[in-house]
Specification:
The protein contains ten helices and eight strands. The chain has about 300 residues and is α/β, with parallel strands linked by helices. The protein has one domain: Arginase, Chain A (3-Layer(aba) Sandwich), CATH 3.40.800. The chain has an eight-stranded parallel β-sheet, with helices on both faces. It is globular, with a radius of gyration of 17 Å.
Length: about 300
C-alpha cells in the first residue's frame, strides 16, 4: 500500500551528556532514507528539521539540559500531531529524549481518531525513569515514564492523552536499572528481555502484542533505538550494550510489523554518526525502515563497507 511518508529531522542532543546525535538526521538523509522509501513506491516528503521552542525555566543541577529538553518536547508534540494528519511520520533523531514529544503527539492524534495509541519500544533500556529517579540526569532515559503518566515531570507539558503501560511493549531489554525494574514490576507492560528472546524467539512476543493492538483497533507507534541491535551490527551509539538483537532478528521484526498494517509512525533514535564505521549503522537503520515500509527480503541491496 502506498503511503504518504513525512520525514522530520530531529537534531536533538539534549537528553544526555555525550554529544553527536544531532548529526543523525543528516546521516539518514546521506544514507538514502528518502530514496529507499521512494523506490518502494511511497510518496516521500522531507519536511526539514524541527527546532525546539524557547523555554524560560531554571536548569536543575541534577538533570542534563532540562530547559532545552522541555523546549524540544513542546515543539515535537505539536510537530508529531500535525504531521500525522498528513501521513506516516518518521522522526529522524536525535537522542531518545525526542520520544518525550513524538509519542504524546501521536497519542493526541490517535485520540482525535477515537483510537488508542500503542507503543513498541525496541531498545536495550526501558527508559522508564522519572526526573526524580534518574541517577545519571540523562533525560533520554525518561520518555516512557513521562508518556505513561509517572509523577515527577512537573517541568514538562501536561499530557492530554496518557499512554497506559499495558499499551506498551518492550522488546530487547538487557540494561534496566533497579529503580526502573521495581517500577515496571508494578505495571502491566509487556516485557520481552533478551533472555526471553533467546529462549523462545523474537516472533511470539511481537505477534501477541500486535494481536492486542488489532483487537483494540489501536494505532501503533514504533520507537527504534540503535542499541536494540547488538553493537557488532550497529556500533554508532553512545550506549552500546552487548548481547542485542541480530541484524536478521531486527529485519524480521520490521517485516512482521509491515505485514500487520498497524504501524502509523516511527522513531529512529540514538544514531551517533561520530561513532559509526563508514556509515554502516546509518545504512542498517535505513534498511530496517525500508523493511518496515515493505521492502521484501529478495529485494534487499548488497552492502559493502
Amino acid at each position: 500500500m502506498t503511503q504518504n511518508i513525512l520525514l522530520l529531522g530531529i537534531p536533538q542532543d539534549s537528553g544526555k551528556r555525550r554529544q553527536g546525535c544531532l548529526m543523525g538526521p543528516d546521516a539518514y538523509r546521506t544514507a538514502g532514507l528518502g530514496q529507499a522509501l521512494s523506490e518502494l513506491g511511497h510518496n516521500v516528503q522531507d519536511l526539514g528539521n524541527v527546532t525546539p521552542e524557547t523555554v524560560e525555566i531554571p536548569q536543575q543541577e541534577n538533570l542534563v539540559k532540562l530547559p532545552e529538553t522541555v523546549g524540544w518536547t513542546r515543539a515535537l508534540t505539536k510537530a508529531a500531531r500535525a504531521a500525522a494528519t498528513h501521513g506516516f511520520p518518521i522522526f529522524m533523531g536525535g537522542d531518545h529524549a525526542l520520544s518525550l514529544g513524538t509519542v504524546p503527539g501521536m497519542a493526541d492524534y490517535a485520540a482525535s481518531q477515537d483510537r488508542p495509541l500503542f507503543v513498541l519500544w525496541l531498545d536495550a533500556h526501558s527508559d522508564f525513569h522519572t526526573p526524580d529517579s534518574t541517577d545519571s540526569g540523562n533525560l533520554h532515559g525518561t520518555p516512557v515514564g513521562y508518556f505513561t503518566g509517572r509523577p515527577g515531570f512537573d517541568a514538562f507539558p501536561k499530557l492530554n492523552n496518557v499512554v497506559p503501560t499495558e499499551n506498551v511493549c518492550f522488546i530487547g531489554l538487557r540494561s534496566v536499572d533497579i529503580a526502573e525494574h521495581e517500577a515496571l514490576a508494578q505495571t502491566n507492560a509487556h516485557l520481552a528481555d533478551m533472555r526471553a528472546l533467546d529462549e523462545f524467539g523474537i516472533k511470539p512476543p511481537l505477534v501477541a502484542f500486535l494481536e492486542k493492538v488489532r483487537a483494540a483497533n489501536g494505532m501503533l507507534h514504533v520507537s527504534l533505538d540503535v542499541d536494540f541491535l547488538d553493537p557488532i551490527y550497529a556500533p554508532a551509539v553512545g550506549t552500546t550494550v552487548p548481547g542485542g538483537a541480530t541484524e536478521r532478528e531486527a529485519h524480521l521484526v520490521m517485516e512482521l510489523l509491515h505485514d500487520s498494517g498497524l504501524v502509523g509512525s516511527l522513531d529512529l533514535v540514538e544514531l551517533n554518526p561520530f561513532l559509526d564505521e563508514r556509515g554502516r549503522t546509518a545504512r542498517l537503520m535505513v534498511d530496517l525502515a525500508a523493511s518496515l515500509m515493505g521492502r521484501r527480503i529478495f529485494d534487499r541491496p548488497t552492502r559493502s563497507f
